[in-house]
Every structure is written in structure tokens, then in C-alpha cells.
Amino acid sequence: MKALLPFAALLSLGTSAAFAQSTTQSANAEAAARAAAPSAADAVNARNQAQYESDMASYARSLRANHREAVRDEVHYDHQRRAYADAMADWRNQVYACRHGHTRACKAPTPNPANYY
User: Fold this and answer.
1) Model-wide pTM > 0.90
2) Taking Cα atoms as reference points, which of 56, 107, 58, 115 lies closest to residue 84?
């Protein structure tokens, strides 16, 4: 009888190991199914990601519009600076001519930068 007892104990250990393995497999399958199914958090994350992408696109459009406006302003101010520089160059030439005896240059009005646009 003593010889059967260890065999019966081994038999019961094998059965409980098989049961534990099947329980683990079913728990793993259940966890995988839950992970694969979309949850409320996934929907919130998807909405947040879509809003983020929309905000980034809006920001990029704003940057491009602002850049175009900045370039347009820079071109305008470059044009103004060039007109002012040309008027001042003509004024220096006029002063030089006046100092060297050309009365017509002395009586001429100061150059207006607006006339150089």
C-alpha cells in the first residue's frame, strides 16, 4: 500500500498542474481579449490625439501666414530704407553743389524720400 501512495500523490500533482496550466491559459486569453478590445480610455486618447494634430496643423498655418506677412513687411521697409538712402545721397550731392557755388542747388528743396518710391 505504501507503494501506491506516492503514485497517487504524483497522479494528483499532475492533475493539479494541468488544471493550473489551463487556468493560466484561460486567464491569459481573457486578458488578451480585454487588451484587444477598445476601451473608453482608447476613445479619449484617440480624440485627444486628433485634437492635438488639428492644433498643430492650425499652428503651422498660422506660422506660414505670419511669415508671409513678415516677408511682405520686410520688403516694404527695405523699399522705404532704399528710398530714404537715395534721397539722402541726393541731398548730400545738393549740399556739396551748394557749398561749391551753385546757387540753384542752394535754392532747391530738400529731396523727399516719398518721391523715390
Assistant:
1) no
2) 115
End-to-end CA, the chain? 119
In single-letter form, the type of residue at position 45 comes to N
Q: State how far the Cα of 111 lies from the Cα of 116, in Å rounded to an integer.
A: 9
Residues 37-67: tens digit of each pLDDT: 777 888 889 999 999 999 999 999 998 888 9
Q: Distances from the Cα of 62 to the Cαs of 34, 69, 78, in angstroms? A: 42, 11, 24
Question: Cα–Cα distance between 79 and 69 in angstroms, integer?
Answer: 15
Measured between alpha carbons, how far is 26 from 30 in angstroms, rounded to an integer?
Answer: 6
